[in-house]
Amino acid sequence: MIWDADRASWPPLSGLVRQITAADFSQGVLDALAEECKTRNITNITVRNLAWEDDWQAAGIERHDVVLASRSLVPDDLREAIVKIDATARKKVLIATIVDDGPFDRRVFKAVGRPLNAGPDYICKYNLLHQMGILANVNFITQDPRRFESVQDAFDSMSWMLHNPTDSERAALEKFLSLHLVKEGDFWATDYDLSPIWAVIWWDKTVR
User: Fold this and answer.
1) For residue 129, which of 177, 83, 182 has the smallest C-alpha distance?
2) Is the dihedral of CA 124, 27, 10, 8 positive or negative?
3) Which of 42, 67, 26 lies closest to 202 in space, CA to CA?
């Protein structure tokens, strides 16, 4: 997502800036965003169907005050993507990315017998930035422990990690949850800590 402080944005940014350009490779995601903007009467967001590998300059993407890549910086060529977002930003770049396994639960993958490759975490990106001469800052955000409204809600929430699980994987996940879900008041939770940590990496264009 890229936005310009002299124009506007989406919730909750739409009330803080004048313009946002929201880019994604998935047209379905962009359609959902456009529908949400229509519902909320938000008129300052421009959606663009673009991938990391596309030529942003040829697509007419202008420079913006701030460029934000939130949980999306997983291109084929990480260096090229960083060069692209750095060149697009006038003032600041922010990247939100995973720490360790991020939102993925390694216990679930082990239970269903599937290997987990969550991809490179924040330190790989930070080290690359250092190699590129970009002096970046890092903060960490720990999500609240996950809570589920029901056992089915827990199953549905964890199924997304497996992306179209097989029947045997679904059965293994049900067995796993029967062993590790506990009732906490009105909600359900795992009997182990499930609090994903995210890294927010940012740098000012004036600092090199």
Assistant:
1) 83
2) positive
3) 67
The secondary structure element, H or E, covering residue 32 is: helix 27-40
Tens-place pLDDT, residues 22-78: 999 999 989 998 998 899 899 999 999 999 999 998 999 999 999 999 988 888 899
Rg (CA), the chain: 20
- pLDDT tens digits along 162-205: 988 999 999 999 999 999 999 999 999 999 988 999 999 999 98
Amino acid identity, position 169: E
Between the CA of residue 137 and those of 2, 38, 108, what are the distances in Å? 19, 36, 32
Q: Is the omega angle on the peptide bond into residue 120 within 30 degrees of 0, that is, cis?
A: no
**Residue 84 CB contacts under 8 Å (≥ 6 apart), including other chains:** 52, 56
Contact 144, 186 (CB under 8 A): no
List the one residue out of 98, 7, 82 whose CA is nearest residue 44. Answer: 7
